[in-house]
TrEMBL record:
Family to which the UniProt record says this protein belongs: Belongs to the sulfatase family.
Signal peptide from the UniProt entry: 1-20
Keyword set, alphabetical order: Calcium, Disulfide bond, Glycoprotein, Hydrolase, Lysosome, Metal-binding, Signal, Zymogen
Domain Sulfatase N-terminal: start-end pairs: 35-412
Catalytic activity annotation: Hydrolysis of the 2-sulfate groups of the L-iduronate 2-sulfate units of dermatan sulfate, heparan sulfate and heparin
Assembly, per entry: Monomer. The 58-kDa mature form is composed of two chains resulting from proteolitic processing, the 42-kDa chain and the 14-kDa chain that remain stably associated and form the 58-kDa intermediate form which is enzymatically active.
Entry EC no(s): 3.1.6.13
Function: Lysosomal enzyme involved in the degradation pathway of dermatan sulfate and heparan sulfate.
Protein's recorded name: Iduronate 2-sulfatase
Phylogenetic lineage: Eukaryota, Metazoa, Chordata, Craniata, Vertebrata
Length: 498
């Protein structure tokens, strides 16, 4: 039994203090406020059963979708971790934060902007962070924006430090720092993986909150399918190589403006990729290795799905499924060989489009009745039944920016006001839309597909470059090296790049 984490010890103190005072700002009067479980996945594109992918085994996320409102056209504002997370967690565009890299803390270098968890904390919620929610490091002041955003110290899995070390057994029998890293979990340092630890921690926190007088906001940030693809090796069996196709457009398109392309340097640093002697920047990856990369990404998605399944099933066992909103999304997508790219770092749809769904008890699905299992754990290795239909879905163009006002609205908190221009001086405001209207129930006779007027809606994404053609730092230019800003303006039918 590991010693209780710092967050668990702190939580005891916080709950002790809260119980004495009881009185979160309850929305409405007769009902208790809803809790929030926000699941943020790292580098997950919508390659999921519930988004129509026939190959992927993601039964637990599909089950969540079947009880949720699912957004078919959700886009991140910048396809790289820290800027995207700062953007959607503060509800401001990258062009407002002007933090397009990993090296600055917004409170110091942009404005003292409130965050989603901070807003919930200030409204009486106990807020908790598990895993990668804010990007770690200086971009969140080496503290995941504590103490502003969180009631208790954020939790990071101890086995995270092995992610980039030599723990991948290669064909030569030696351990390497590889891109492809299926492991035997009992053999790796600490005998566990970061996402497993995060699930366990999150379940413990949920257990503590079960009897809490105040509502909670728990953010769980999963690491996979971010590279390296380090995952329990049995998940590879779900995707035999002969079943894995190449991307439909695996070549760098002729006539592509070179500024749009980036050389995916992070992949090239891995030992197994180095051994391929690829030419920089376009060097195609041999087709058989492309299949292996796609296989491992998909295996990571199924591994992630089991973690989401364990977490939701615990929520259910604790009888919290009828009082907790579950929001599920990712910081951005990832190119799996489309137009010759293997990365995020661009404005292409494959890197900007994200899964986004919200389960709202009693609203997107009926309330579970006492004793009913609402999110039973589903094993992706079990023979496949049909992927259930999403509960409801919408094709509206939405931006991840809208997470802030939408979560606030769904929980019954006052939706922050729209930001004026400029808004550097304003701590609490939002640039995203409040999507609440899309959750309105239109009665049974209407189509389950909710549509407002999609043609009026657009989603913006942007990506900076240090030069007009790919060079060593095109993936992640530092602020001082940025020379070009590319924009993508997406409507339902078109995308314009400028
Ligand atoms: C709750 O508020 C509504 C109107 O806002 C009011 O009609 C009702 O009496 C209130 N109920 C309680 C239990 O306070
Ligand atoms: C920034 O916001 C936090 C949280 O509201 C507040 O405690 C802090 O004093 C603010 N800092 C500045 C410099 O305004
Ligand atoms: C960032 O962290 C440092 C070290 O803990 C602290 O002194 C500083 O006040 C923090 N910055 C802000 C804006 O809170
Ligand atoms: C691989 O594809 C074959 C043919 O479509 C199918 O029968 C088999 O079930 C697939 N294997 C897995 C593990 O999905
Ligand atoms: C890569 O280059 C090295 C050194 O030039 C060579 O020994 C090796 O065989 C090459 N590997 C492949 C896969 O071409």
């Amino acid at each position: 039994m590991p010693p209780p984490s710092r967050s668990l010890l702190w939580l005891g103190l916080v709950l002790g203090a809260v119980c004495a005072s009881r009185g979160p700002a309850a929305p409405g009067n007769a009902t208790d406020p809803l809790n929030v479980l926000l699941i943020i996945v790292d580098d997950l594109r919508p390659s999921l059963g519930c988004y129509g992918n026939k190959l992927i085994r993601s039964p637990n996320i599909d089950q969540l979708a079947s009880r949720s409102l699912l957004f078919q056209n959700a886009f991140a504002q910048q396809a790289v971790c820290a800027p995207s997370r700062v953007s959607f967690l503060t509800g401001r565009r990258p062009d407002t934060t002007r933090l397009y890299d990993f090296n600055s803390y917004w409170r110091v270098h942009a404005g003292n902007f409130s965050t989603i968890p901070q807003y919930f904390k200030e409204n009486g919620y106990v807020t908790m962070s598990v895993g990668k929610v804010f990007h770690p490091g200086i971009s969140s002041n080496h503290s995941d924006d504590s103490p502003y955003s969180w009631s208790v110290p954020p939790y990071h899995p101890s086995s995270e430090k092995y992610e980039n070390t030599k723990t991948c057994r290669g064909p030569d029998g030696e351990l390497h720092a590889n891109l492809l890293c299926p492991v035997d979990v009992v053999d790796v340092p600490e005998g566990t993986l970061p996402d497993k630890q995060s699930t366990e921690q999150a379940i413990q926190l949920l257990g503590k909150m079960k009897t809490s007088a105040s509502p909670f906001f728990l953010a769980v940030g999963y690491h996979k399918p971010h590279i390296p693809f380090r995952y329990p090796k049995e998940f590879q069996k779900l995707y035999p190589l002969e079943n894995v196709s190449l991307a439909p457009d695996p070549q760098v398109p002729t006539g592509l403006p070179l500024v749009a392309y980036n050389p995916w340097m992070d992949l090239r640093q891995r030992e197994d990729i180095q051994a391929l002697n690829l030419s920089v920047p376009y060097g195609p990856i041999p087709a058989d290795f492309q299949r292996k990369i796609r296989q491992s990404y998909f295996a990571c998605v199924s591994y992630l799905d089991t973690q989401v399944g364990r977490l939701l099933s615990a929520l259910d066992d604790l009888q919290l499924a009828s009082s907790t909103i579950v929001a599920f999304t990712s910081d951005h997508g990832w190119a799996l060989g489309e137009h010759g790219e293997w990365a995020k770092y661009s404005n292409f749809d494959v890197t900007t489009r994200v899964p986004l769904m919200f389960y709202v008890p009693g609203r997107t699905a009926p309330l579970p009745v006492e004793g009913e299992k609402f999110f039973p754990y589903l094993d992706p290795f079990d023979s496949v039944s049909e992927v259930p239909e999403p509960g409801r879905q919408t094709g509206d163009l939405v931006e991840l920016l809208s997470l802030f006002p939408t979560l606030a609205g769904l929980a019954g908190l006052r939706v922050p006001p729209r930001c004026p221009i400029p808004s550097f001086h304003m701590e609490l405001c939002r640039e995203g839309r409040n999507l609440l209207k899309l959750f309105e129930d239109h009665g049974e006779e209407e189509e389950p597909h909710v549509r407002s007027n999609p043609r009026e809606l657009v989603a913006y994404s942007q990506y900076p470059r240090p030069a007009d053609s790919p060079q060593w730092n095109s993936d992640k230019p530092s602020l001082e090296d940025i020379k070009v800003m590319g924009y993508s303006i997406r409507t339902v039918d078109y995308r314009m790049d400028a």
